[in-house]
Specification:
Order of helices and strands: HHEEHEHEHEEHEEE
Oligomer: single chain
Radius of gyration: 16 Å
Distance between the termini: 44 Å
CATH architecture: 3-Layer(aba) Sandwich
Shape: globular
Largest sheet: 7 strands, mixed
Strand content: 25-35%
Number of helices: 6
CATH class: Alpha Beta
Number of domains: 1
Helix content: 25-40%
CATH superfamily: Vaccinia Virus protein VP39
């Protein structure tokens, strides 16, 4: 018996009713994936609350709403190939893996990359490849991607991530001149240029790298 199932169901109900998340595939997957297994032991009781939580290496696991919103904005199908920048402890990664054909995840912090790999192995997830490097450069060898998701705040949009999108592909990324405060953007690659959309204020750890913040 999953002792957190009731709490998880309430979280998903809140996503649908309060936040108006309408992609049923996203809601179904978030009702399946045990978020409490991706946070420190001492914080498990907080896992289904509506807030981000600290994980190791001074990083965070995103607020459930933000995970759902960003995932919904990607408009994934079972045929999609996804690039994830900032895998953290692997929670968002496994959600993407259940919605898409293949996920290529980059995590710059070795301890977290190792933790995410272990979690994915424990869950028997086979369609994820994880690398430990600078995610702001993307992953050219596996491009182009149907979708790119960035779980850290950037001062501007990293051009390599835009360039590695397929036509019609979507990049969802927090952008802001303040390292602690951003706006969630979605870029959609068109035949000529990109469509740009704003989707509300958010707060992420800084995106460190060649095309992000300096460490």
């Amino acid at each position: 018996m999953d002792e957190y199932k009731i709490a998880r169901d309430k979280m998903v109900q809140r996503l649908a009713e309060h936040y108006k998340i309408s992609d049923q595939r996203v809601l179904d997957v978030m009702s399946e994936v045990p978020r409490h297994l991706f946070v420190p032991e001492a914080l498990k009781f907080q896992a289904y609350r509506d807030n981000a939580l600290p994980i190791s290496s001074n990083q965070t696991i995103s607020q459930p709403y933000i995970v759902a919103k960003m995932t919904e904005l990607l408009e994934l199908t079972p045929a999609c190939k996804v690039l994830e920048i900032g895998a953290g402890s692997g929670y968002q990664t496994i959600i993407l893996a259940k919605l898409a054909r293949a996920v290529y995840a980059i995590e710059r912090i070795p301890a977290l990359a190792k933790e995410a790999k272990q979690k994915l192995t424990e869950f028997g997830v086979k369609n994820v490849t994880i690398s430990c490097e600078d995610g702001t450069n993307g992953w050219p060898i596996y491009s182009p991607f149907d979708a790119v998701i960035v779980a850290a705040g950037s001062p501007s949009v990293p051009n390599p991530l835009l360039e590695q999108l397929k036509p019609g592909g979507k990049l969802v990324i927090p952008i802001g001149e303040d390292p602690k405060s951003q706006v969630l953007f979605r870029f959609i690659k068109e035949a000529q240029g990109y469509t740009t959309e704003e989707h509300g204020a958010c707060s992420f750890v800084p995106l460190i790298g060649d095309h992000g913040w300096e460490s």
